[in-house]
Amino acid sequence: MSNEWPLWEVFIRAKAGLDHKHCGSVHAPDATMALQAARDVYTRRQEGVSIWVVRADQIVASDPGDKHEFFDPMQDKIYRHPTFYQLPEEVNHI
Amino acid sequence: MLRLADGALILAQRLGEWCGHGPALEEDIAFANIGLDLLGQARLLYTHAGALEGRGRTEDSFAYWRDEAEFFNPTIVELPNGDFAQSVLRAYLFVLYQQSLWARLIASTDAELAAIAGKSAKETRYHVRHLGNWVVRLGDGTAESHTRLQRALDYLMPYTAELFAPDAVDDALLAARIGPALGDAATAWREPLAATLAKATLVLPAASPFLSMGKRGQHSEAMGYLLTEMQSLARAHPGATW
Question: Cβ separation of A27 and B133 shorter than 8 Å?
Fold first, then answer.
């Protein structure tokens, strides 16, 4: 068993209305300190208005080796892509 | 004014000493952030002090061109960093003290000072939270961290008497309704401190008659070394700019 602090993944919302985006990770002994470490490490230059931290070992990730069966079948189904609409110019972030 | 500013500046310098030496990258940055906030507060206060004095002194003249006896920071901020526990606790005791002052200075008849207090109070609220979390975690952590923090508390507490012991300057400022009532500030300081120490399973040492004199310009032997390092660049290259 290692004495290292657990790893936490950090997600930051740059401004109201945008999504939280993954921006990196921190080591911290618990959730409270992880949030503060994320604030100190990743928002020093006004990068965010909201922070999420998630313990890295709590994230279930897809296996890169499963890429073919997971993602390739969607390649030839362009009728699912929302590219046939005209968006008004003032609509952002879609 | 200079007492407030010097306290923030000298602690900023001590916190900066941790840069590159923190126990973890995350805490290294946290300490530097707090230090830079304090430095910002000192700059505002020096600039205001210079304007009040009206003799053309700038923030730099105050920081780099005064000698030891002309600094009026409380002794607690100039003490060496010691171990991480001592650094955390010293910073916590001081930012909690700042918090108790800002809360009163926002009502100061000096409008500029009140504005500085209002801005600084936000920063200080985070410092108190962050450092307080460390005090609880170290105090209520392992046997080793508890021992170190209790040792730091026994060492540092006698230096806190100075923070709230009013002298003629404090009394005059209070009478002019510029400065805070230190008695009230002491109460506002002691309550959250007691709550944090209880959570951290630490015991306050018995009160001691010792009274440090930093705010009257009489410093510990650590102060000269700190100033030498802090002022060496400015004095070797007067007028240098970034």
Answer: no
Here the tokens at position B145 are 């961290």
- B101 Cα distance to chain centroid: 11
Q: How many CB atoms lie within 10 A of CB B159?
A: 23
d(CA B162, CA B194): 18
pTM of the predicted protein model: 0.87
Question: Is residue B211 a part of any domain in this protein?
Answer: no
Q: Of A5, A32, A41, which is closest to B133 when you measure between CB atoms? A: A32
This model of the complex carries an ipTM of 0.80
Going by their DSSP bridges, the two strands A7-13 and A20-27 should be labelled as antiparallel
CB atoms within 10 A of CB B197: 19
Q: Tell me the residue range of the domain where B37 lies.
A: 2-206+217-236
Between CA B109 and CA B176 the distance in angstroms is 8
Within-domain flag for A49: yes
CATH of the domain at B126: 1.20.1260.10
Range(s) of the domain holding residue A52: 7-62
* pLDDT tens, residue by residue, B74-109: 999 999 999 999 999 999 999 999 999 999 999 999
Strand partners, A22: A11
Q: Judge whether A88 lies within some domain.
A: no
**Interatomic CA distance for residues B190 and A12, integer angstroms:** 36
Chain A nearest-CA distance from B98, in A, is 21
What is the number of structural domains in chain B? 1
Domain membership flag for residue B69: yes
